[in-house]
Write a sequence for this structure.
């Protein structure tokens, strides 16, 4: 009757406005599972990330960031939004780029001196116009994108002869042996480089 209300323990919670300011990394493979940090304004709640139309759980790191794993998707751009109730979503439309699986085919040369400074050509497929990180063993250096089939890396100084694994990443997180392709190896010798 508009005057008598049932006593109930149900509660409705009003929350502060959510906003997304940036995300990192901004790209990942179509296979998904890239750990994305979303920066913005968040409260103490349970959040959901939405990549395009695909929703995945988010984990609160702080009042200014949440993290979520990208779901598999087709190649292209997806708007990433956040919600605390899966109804009201942010409208900041920050973009996450899905790229095809990258593959390494060969290294030229595949050997170098312990003194480093050998320029290594990495041939493969689906390289993106983005920063390149080259990983010799556990040592990471910046590389150079040339085109979708070629990147360049300069071998670092090494402490002893032997083979080390070689991988690349274009989002500083997903390296080519982590679900993208097999590792390639390069051998670091005390002699001069041997060109293939």
């Amino acid at each position: 009757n508009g005057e008598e209300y049932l006593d109930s323990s149900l509660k409705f919670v009003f929350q502060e406005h959510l906003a997304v300011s940036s995300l990192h990394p901004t790209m990942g493979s179509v296979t998904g599972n890239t750990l994305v940090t979303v920066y913005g304004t968040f409260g103490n709640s349970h959040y959901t990330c939405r990549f395009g139309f695909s929703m995945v759980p988010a984990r609160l790191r702080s009042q200014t960031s949440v993290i979520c794993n990208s779901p598999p998707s087709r190649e292209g751009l997806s708007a990433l939004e956040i919600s605390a109730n899966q109804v009201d979503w942010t409208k900041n439309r920050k973009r996450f780029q899905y790229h095809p699986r990258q593959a390494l085919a060969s290294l030229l040369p595949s050997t170098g001196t312990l003194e480093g400074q050998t320029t290594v050509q990495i041939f493969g497929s689906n390289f993106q116009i983005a920063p390149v990180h080259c990983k010799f063993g556990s040592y990471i250096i910046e590389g150079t994108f040339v085109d979708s089939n070629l990147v360049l890396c300069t071998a670092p100084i090494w402490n002893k002869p032997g083979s080390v694994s070689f991988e690349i990443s274009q989002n500083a997180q997903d390296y080519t042996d982590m679900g993208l392709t097999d590792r390639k190896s390069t051998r670091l010798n005390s002699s001069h480089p041997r060109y293939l």
Q: What stands out?
A: Residues 75 and 98 are 5 Å apart (CA to CA).
